[in-house]
Amino acid sequence: MSYASRNKLESARTQNEEDVDVVGRSTRHRRHWWQTKNKRNKRPIPNYNSMAVDSVRKNCLQLTKGFNEDDAPINKKLPKELILRIFSYLDVVSLCRCAQVSKSWNVLALDGSNWQRIDLFDFQKDVEGPIIENISRRCGGFLRQLSLRGCQSIADGSMKTLAQLCPNVEDLNLNGCKKITDTTCQSLSKHCSKLQKLNLDSCSAITDLSLKSLSDGCPQLSHINISWCSNITESGVEALARGCPKLKSFVSKGCRQITSRAVICLARFCENLEIINLLGCSNIRDEAVQALAEKCSKVHYLCLSGCSKLTDTSLIALAQQCPFLSTLEVAGCSQFTDAAFQALARSCRYLEKMDLDECVLITDATLIHLSMGCPRIEYLTLSHCELITDEGIRHLSMSPCAAENLTVLELDNCPLVTDASLEHLTSCHNLQRVELYDCQLITRVGIRRLRSHLPNIKVHAYFAPVTPPPSAGGSRQRYCRCCAIL
């Protein structure tokens, strides 16, 4: 082969190697090839790693340039005002995602007008003080509603910043924020005069000082929840009632130090009360309920469960003064009799939900009166009402409420109820759930018959396991497995 031919072949092979090398060879091979090829010319050896990074950066900038700038297609189609309005319907997570799309979207998504209502319940324990402080700075006067329910890391410092920077907040939920103390309520009183709703449920460090502060600085307060704040006494409730006459909802579940005096003060100064929950306030007596009935005729939800010192006098007063009562919960009020519920049935025709759990003195007469006088009942609890029989259930099943509205009936621990009651309930076409735990005279056959008429109904019952028969033959007694283990 001639020298010229050999040079042509070498040149072609070198060209092919160059084409393949750019794609498939390692950096070490590429550098070795460049050293051999450019040994005579003394050319600088290129850094392919740096070249690749620069190329990627250049391409990314080209791809994102059109979207980041104001002349992006979506920004041409929609004006900023319309995009801002669309963002106002998004939740916190969606807004944060939109803020990462482009610079213009970042400005619009983080605009304070989009952050008027914030619920951080999904984040719960992950939310800490700095996050609340950042939100406070971003929202400022736009913030109206904030829920920190379950955010146990939130403390007084961040809440003080919130109160100072967000003076227009109207609805604040601090349920389960156990680090919150009276300092937070003092800050709210000082800066947030427009506060209307405050939930302090399970904020165990809250005392009467918080209620006194709120009464001084939050005259617009209409809803408050101090459930399980065990340090609250009648002194704090009285101060709150005097300073917040617009109260419509007062919830104090588990506050055992609240007495009749505190409730009477509420009735006197807060005549617009509509929702009252005194569950577990065992020191409440008849005079307190009488005061509520006399002064707060607009009440439609009343929970007196666990107020075991109350008598028929309370229910009779409610029957005479509160015709709009729709929900009545009196579980554990064991002194109520048929006479009290007869008075209610005559006057309170809007009753929809009644919890009579452990009202052990009532009989079928109560069901007869309710079936005639309360056509709107949807939810009825008769658990542990041991004097209720099939006859009472029969009257209930024939009532207007059973035919149209009754959806839940709880009969746990009613020992006199039999399968005949289930037969009567087949006419309750809207019935969705029946509780039959520990009803000893209810059988599986009766439940199957009920389900055959109401296929969508949920029946909750418990049947004890059958006692094994004694062993046949032999004098040795046969023990069950648990006895053998013991």
TrEMBL record:
It is found in: Membrane. PROSITE patterns: FBOX. This is F-box/LRR-repeat protein 2. Residues 1-22 are annotated as: Disordered. GO terms for molecular function: calmodulin binding; ubiquitin-like ligase-substrate adaptor activity. Part of the SCF (SKP1-CUL1-F-box) E3 ubiquitin-protein ligase complex SCF(FBXL2) composed of CUL1, SKP1, RBX1 and FBXL2. Interacts with calmodulin; may antagonize substrate ubiquitination by SCF(FBXL2). May interact with PIK3R1. Interacts with PTPN13. It is a lipid-anchor. The lineage of its organism: Eukaryota, Metazoa, Ecdysozoa, Arthropoda, Hexapoda. Residues 72-118 form the F-box domain. SMART domains: FBOX, LRR_CC.
